[in-house]
Amino acid sequence: MKIKNLSLIVLLLVSQAILAQETKVKLSGKITDKASQEALSFVNIVLKTSSDSAFVTGAISEESGLFTLSDVAPGEYVLEASFIGFQTSVTPVFVGSSSPFLNIGEIAMSDSYQELGAVEVVGVQDAVGLKMDKKTFDLNENISQRGGSILQTMSNLPGVAIVDNQIQIRGNNRVTVLIDGKQTALTGFGNQSGLDNLPASSVEKIEIFNNPSAKFDANGNAGIVNIILKKENQEGFNGKVGLALGLGTLWEKKANLPGIRPQYQNTPKVNPSLSLNYRKKDVNFFLQADNLYTQTLNKNEFVTRIYDDGTVINQQLKRNRNTNFLTTRAGVDWTINSANTLTVSGMFGSEKIIDRGDQPFFNGDFSEQLRLWQFLEDELKTTVMATAVYKHNFTDPGHSLSAGLNYTFHREDEQYFFTNTLPTFKGEDAFKLLSDENVVDGTLDYVKPLKNGRLETGLKLRRRWIPTNMQFFPGLNSPIDSLAGGAATYKETIPAVYGNYVYESKKWEGEIGLRLEYIDLNYEVNPNHPTYKSDGYNYFQPFPNARISYKINEFNKLTASFNRRVDRPNEVDIRIFPKYDDAEIIKVGNPALKPQFTISYELGWKAGWSSGYLYSALYHRMVNGTITRISTTVPGSTLIYAIFQNGDKSYTSGLELIWDQDVTDWYSFDLNLTGYHNQIDEFTVENKYPTPHTFTVDKQEIFSGNVKWNSKFKFSDKFSGQLTAIYLAPDIIPQGRIQSRFSLDVGLNRVIQQGNGELFFNATDLLNTMVIKRTIDGNDFSYTSADYYETQVMRVGYNYKF
Known about the structure:
Blueprint: H1 2-14, E1 25-33, E2 44-49, E3 55-60, E4 66-72, E5 75-82, E6 89-95, E7 101-109, E8 119-121, E9 129-130, E10 135-138, H2 150-154, E11 160-163, E12 166-169, E13 175-179, E14 203-209, E15 223-229, E16 236-248, E17 267-280, E18 283-307, E19 312-337, E20 340-362, E21 369-393, E22 400-422, E23 425-450, E24 453-473, E25 486-504, E26 508-525, E27 535-553, E28 556-567, H3 571-574, E29 585-588, E30 596-609, E31 612-624, E32 627-632, E33 640-646, E34 649-662, E35 667-680, E36 683-687, E37 693-697, E38 700-716, E39 719-728, E40 731-733, E41 736-738, E42 741-752, E43 757-764, E44 772-777, E45 781-787, E46 793-801
Parallel strand pairs: 1-7, 6-8, 13-15, 29-33
Antiparallel strand pairs: 1-4, 2-3, 2-5, 5-6, 9-10, 10-14, 11-12, 14-15, 16-17, 16-46, 17-18, 18-19, 18-45, 19-20, 20-21, 21-22, 22-23, 23-24, 24-25, 25-26, 26-27, 27-28, 28-30, 30-31, 31-34, 32-33, 34-35, 35-38, 36-37, 38-39, 39-42, 40-41, 41-44, 42-43, 43-46, 44-45
């Protein structure tokens, strides 16, 4: 009985969700003479509330008979059309929550009274808060992570976890990251990268799509993260300047093993930012620049490897990192006329990374040093992006045709210098990597508002090519596989077409879409490579999506959704060159790697009240051909090779709850609970590098999840604070498990200078408790690891708007 009661309580909780705040929509239509079918100009249009006939807004029809009503909130109304010589038309109007522009069609007026049928018009809800198709978070409200990187800022967002500098959504890191709706080399094409170095000061808000529609690219089975950069819309000249200063690694979490250089402590962080905007009449110029300089204890991992023959090896990988990342973005919005606009923009990013690493290896009782591996990494990443977007607006609002062209160039210029010290000799090794990524995207998108929704369709063509060259320079008795270098070229062509239809009535909402995608991928490698040969694949696949919602009442809505998505291996996943930042646990790509395909189902319920909301979602995700790293050894060696492979099937089923509540005038909170069951089926793979060998991974499953509690304090109108607690439960990883983690973040914000300035202070991982602990089981070994990398950072900052 207790279990039944508990289940009933959980079901009641699940039946709640968020009621997002309302935004304004634009309605359009056309007035005609019923007898002659000709347009009627100068007709008086008035919109009133249905409850008390209060005036809301009005307009006069143009010579073409068209009219537009702006800034209409969701609700029930009466539309009155009056003109001398014609009977006044009275039409009930319903405004829902799906589309920003709706065309209610023609209203025919006649000499005699005619009762017109009801017209239902769809609106849009405010994305600040939560919608059933996406979650949107304003970073200005994220005080406890201000002044850091985008990755750090996202760590306390509901439904998001950070593992190994990767975003996980509902336990999955296959996330596609967009910037202003576009994929770029700054954050990766079809994967995620670089988020720990991109400054959050450049970001206005972040959108998370758990079940994206067909208008988005099909990759990213865990969902899509869209990073929206700041851009002012005020008239005249305005801008914002800011400076954030930070200090990390305030004390040592765990001391080094003997004989290596000190680990970083009291690491500085400096983030100046500048945003300028000039808008006058039909032209808007914008410029944004951010520079993020950090020193970081990027890795401090202690590993114990135990082999079946009794061999025990203890090791530490400590990496001190210096990073300077400059990003600049500029452009112009030109309103050519009332129907046509053109936006041209460019972005430049330069990321300089210097890593100094130390890796000692000891026997089981630490009585003998087996090896000391030290390295210097000197890497420069350069990104250039140019974008042009043309948009034609037809006569009725929201009816548009857009064309875009985007080019991205990303260079990775990387050099490693190694010192390999063993008891009997000392060797010097090096390698140089040069990779140039080129991507051209062309898009065409069409949107047509309808009486009860909208139609979206379009096409996209992507051409991507990445010539890469790795040169090894082995020294005395080098452990480096110098024959595994050479040249390789990645070539990808993806044409795609999509259609998406959104429908809404007073009680029902629906969305159905289909994306058709073809891909031709070729990876040409050095013919003298000792293991890998050229490979590739192609496919033509459909990616459908569907969503249906039922509005129980004004405050409750039930939604069910379905979609199919794909995760294509990125170039670094199939890169044939071994990576030696760890001398004995070596990561290698796999050119035979194929895409993984995912089918997802979700059932959500949302409800709200005057002081808060509760959102819930039940979801299930099935992955076929799961992409994962498999760690194995070859006979006669203790070296471990971690190689990407396609496993069999994996499943995730879970529940997500978000409760946001204003408790008093000075205190509010949002509580996020995510619980899920993870399962990876048994599979067998063949690792071909450095010699062919097979390995079978047993079936794994676990119940896991995370809890996040954001407490927000309003001490006064100008002084606020935030306290964030994060707990991540144990979870499975291929061949092993990752242990639980906990952190506590705090932030304070003070508005000064009559609202134009602000001061802030925050501290991440205040108690210095975040440690990543893993266990891995291989073919003839097992190992445990604990990474005491830098997580505790304190920052102060100042921003001024003018």
